[in-house]
Amino acid sequence: MSERVKVGPENELPEGWQGEVQVDGVGVLVVRYEGQFYALRNNCTHKDFPLLGGEVVMGRITCEKHGARFELSTGKARTLPAVKPVKVYRTEVEDGEVYVSAL
Ligand code: FES
Fold first, then answer.
1. Beta pairing class for 60-62 and 56-57
2. CA distances from 61 to 53, 56, 72, 77, 94 (A)
3. Where is coiled-coil annotated (predicted)?
4. Is the Cβ atom of 59 under 6 angstroms away from ligand 1?
């Protein structure tokens, strides 16, 4: 059974916030964008660079290494040089706390 990891209180994670948690031993990036929380593996599928800290525009996060963009909601690669999707995780808000778990 996959673990469910607490990220923190929703009201302390403002719009644009990014952070990393460990889920089943894997680094997972959590992003707040337009009020929603998104979680995806914190590794670009091009050369494994961390996605944490990348710019988010139109629901897509940019890998700072070579500029690939990934959809926050699906993990799909939308800009070269990445072609493979990034694994996405489930986010939930319960009693004011944000959680991440494997899908
Ligand atoms: S490592 Fe992310 S685009 Fe190359």
1. antiparallel
2. 9, 4, 7, 10, 25
3. none
4. no
Q: Distance between CA atoms of 98 and 10, rounded to whole angstroms?
A: 6
Reported as a single tens digit per residue, the pLDDT across 41-80 is: 999 999 999 999 999 999 999 999 999 999 999 999 999 9
102, exposed or middle or buried, with CB in 10 Å at 0-12, 13-18, 19+?
Answer: middle
Phi–psi pair at 10, nearest 5 degrees: -55, -40
- Domain range for 8 is 4-102
Token readout for 84 is 């493979």
* Number of domains composing the chain: 1
pTM above threshold 0.85: yes
Residue type, 57: V
Output the CA 94–ligand 1 centroid distance in Å. Answer: 34
Report CA(80)–ligand 1 centroid distance (Å): 9
